Predict the 3D structure of the following.
Amino acid sequence: MSVYTIFGATGLQGKSVALTLAEHLGPKAHIRAITRDPTSTRSQQLKDTVTSLGAQLTLVKHDLSQQTTAALENALQGTEYLFLNSDSFALREEETRIMQEVVDAAVALPNLRLLLWSTLPDASKISGGKYTGVKHFQQKARVDEHLHRVGQKIAWVGLQLGWFAENVGDYHLLTEDADGTVAFKYAIATAETAVPWTWITKELGVAALKLFEKSATVEGLPEDVLRKSLPVCGWRATFGEVVAEFERQTGRKYRYETLGGWGNPELDDMNRFFRDFGLYEDWTVPAEPLRKIGVPSPTLSEFVSDYLVGHKV
Ligand SMILES: NC(=O)c1ccc[n+]([C@@H]2O[C@H](COP(=O)([O-])OP(=O)(O)OC[C@H]3O[C@@H](n4cnc5c(N)ncnc54)[C@H](OP(=O)(O)O)[C@@H]3O)[C@@H](O)[C@H]2O)c1
């Protein structure tokens, strides 16, 4: 049995990883789920689902914002495979320092086989200093830089995520007009803005599983994956193309509407960055190095048909 520790295990990303590991590895996996509250409904539901799939799950209490060396050592105890996600909007400007501490502690683990870090690129750098307000991108990119500095002796991969497909439902982006047209409303980005999409539920967990499995083989991870940050994104599409795919599958009329902003300067800057610079433009997605090691990629068409099963518009 191998020990998999997941930070952010009760969230969208961590849950995708925990459930995929449980589903594919069953009793071969001991999952240590890091949470601030092991008694919460989300924690208990995760435990029930993972154990029903035959894997072992231990809920480990750890609050990143109250982190001490002893608490961190306890959180990481026995870890062989590590998935790290931190919530930028919960940790704010402390995210970089806190997650660099986690990386430092992980690097010192005696049995660590692979560290996966869920990350984003530096929008300020890519935009040549035009968009300096996309703090959560920068916070995570600084942790990548730290990994490059201190992680030369361990195996790690940065998983750069795209625009979550789950945003469509989670943020209620589709609404119905009085005439029955379905409107996809989103801020600042236009119908021509193309972003790479990550369908977390279907994509992130399986990418983590494949990377963990490959890292455990004799040949290990290939050079174009090891100690690199690379996009885990199934497809790139403009918002106009997404709306067209909904129309194609439903036969209904859809339209895309650009809203002025969300009233959140950081998110508005992020969407200006997407509009003007795209995301991971130096990559063709799905990324070939991940495809080569067997990471499957869902498509826009699959996402839309899956979404339509669970939602009215
Ligand atoms: N939406 C997008 O399109 C998009 C795209 C790329 C990247 N992202 C990034 O995704 C991240 C959020 O990931 P997610 O969607 O998986 O999050 P989520 O579903 O909102 O869950 C947040 C997770 O963080 C944990 N957490 C929060 N504060 C914590 C603390 N102080 N100590 C320990 N754990 C803590 C929560 O655990 P407990 O509540 O159980 O403690 C929970 O598991 C953000 O940083 C965002 O920048 C989002």
Summary: Residues 62-310 form a domain with the Rossmann fold fold (CATH 3.40.50.720). The chain has one domain: 62-310.
